[in-house]
Amino acid sequence: MKLSHRITHLTGGGSDGWDVFYRARRMISEGVAVTELTIGEHDIGTHPSILDAMNASAVGGHTGYAMVPGTALLRDTVAARVQTRTGVPTTRDNVLITPGGQAALFAAHSAACDYGDTALYLDPYYATYPGTIRGVGAIAKAVRTRAEDAFQPRAADIDAAAHGAVSLLINTPNNPTGVIYSRETLESIAEVCKRRDLWLISDEVYDTQVWEGGHVSPRALPDMAERTLVVGSMSKSHAMTGSRCGWIVAPAEVIGHLINLATHTTYGVPGFIQDAASFALSSGRELEDEISEPFRRRRALASGILGRQNAVTMIPSQGAMYLMLDIRATGLTGEAFANALLDSHHIAVMPGESFGRAAAGHVRVAMTIEAFAAALSTLCQFASVLSEQRAFE
Fold first, then answer.
1. pLDDT tens digits along 210-246
2. Which fold has domain 48-284?
3. How far apart (Å, rounded) are the C-alpha atoms in residues 217 and 204?
4. Interior/surface letters 162-180, b for 16+ CB within 10 angstroms, e for the rest
5. What three-state secondary structure class fits 173?
6. DSSP letter at 265?
7. On the chain, which terminus has fewer CB atoms closer than 10 Å, C or N?
8. In the chain, where do the E strands start and end?
9. Could you give the residue range(s) of every CATH 3.40.640.10 domain in the chain?
């Protein structure tokens, strides 16, 4: 018996660069106290008011099959939110509710790509991107961004890679870099998409975590609504990671086909989860700001800590719950630095190489624990010692 090429080659082989994370978890299981700055998981739970709404819906009987496209209430709520924030006319016919943002990414690529098509994504990237593309049978092709550009993509690089491609996946505010793509960057990307006839898949799950500037959805740019598939989620905006509730916003024709896909795969999202999501989105910006505030505060602390030393440089962190730190002054790769930091100080960070080649010599730090400032200070002290040792070699 033989397994499919698609399933056996999903990750491209290996752990996709997550060895340090797995080693940290093994240490924790063995009783070692490890400070984890690795994954994007809030250190607060889902807000009690959201849980109350979820419980009331479940107790009230909304525990059976929900409508596969999503409840009318949640689709309308998402549509209204998107229209208010972007100015683009949006109705429930433009919205499909999915079991989290990851399912939305898979569905979006299923809509855009046939088997053997080339699908572009930007490097550095969220760890699941290439596997998601391979999962629909497409060929994953990375387009590198550059640290010297603060990882803002260059349209010329995308254009050069776009021959024969059918789609481009972007993520702003960005995981892993914390960078927000500027309007100018997005306008240049949009021109490439129109010229090359690419679907643009825009992962916007961090759109409530903006520390500097503003978030622009490329769907709102001229002539882009018809070729843009937007991925959204309750996970980051409302600390509902385990509830698995996300969405795609797209042209109505695309949504119609994706409803057929959902009917044959996920068969929708539990109704009581959707009711809780509707409540959360209807609670307005105050609740979203309350959930994002710890990351805003920790990012400000990080700026002060990093400004008092010169061994570690921060890529401008404009949004999301992460910092991308340049540790090349130590002479180590991101992976070597992360392993050494874990061994010497029991602090776990993600090597930049975990997210592609473009972030080699960097580490990603998640601002997801209250002890973040102390851990970052230790990281900087460790890097300073390594940098000084290197200077005397």
1. 999 999 999 999 999 999 999 999 999 999 999 999 9
2. Aspartate Aminotransferase; domain 2 (3.40.640)
3. 8
4. beebbbbbbbbbbbbbbbb
5. coil
6. T
7. N
8. 35-37, 95-98, 118-123, 139-144, 165-171, 199-203, 228-233, 246-249, 313-314, 322-326, 347-351, 362-366
9. 48-284
Tokens read off for 302: 């990080």
Count H helices, E strands: the chain? 13, 12
CATH 3.90.1150.10 location in the chain: 5-45+286-391
E strands of 11-81, at which residues?
Answer: 35-37
CA distance 81 to 234: 13
Q: Which pair of structure tokens corresponds to residue 186?
A: 């997005």
- Strand order of the sheet with strand 199-203? 95-98, 246-249, 228-233, 199-203, 165-171, 118-123, 139-144
**Topology, domain 5-45+286-391:** Aspartate Aminotransferase, domain 1 (3.90.1150)
Who's near 64: CB < 8 A, 6+ residues apart? Answer: 271
The ranges of the chain with pLDDT < 70 are 13-17, 393
Q: Which residues contact 184 (CB under 8 A, 6 or more apart)?
A: none
| E strand residue ranges, 285-337 | 313-314, 322-326
Query: Length of the chain in residues, anyone?
Result: 393
The label of the residue with tokens 């010169």 reads 310
Q: Work out whether the CA dihedral 285, 68, 101, 80 comes out positive or negative.
A: negative
Residue 89 DSSP label: -
Q: In the beta sheet, which residues pair with residue 97?
A: 247
In 3D space, the residue among 150, 171, 284, 144 whose CA is nearest the CA of residue 230 turns out to be 171
- Shortest CA distance to 174 belongs to which of 192, 149, 191? 149
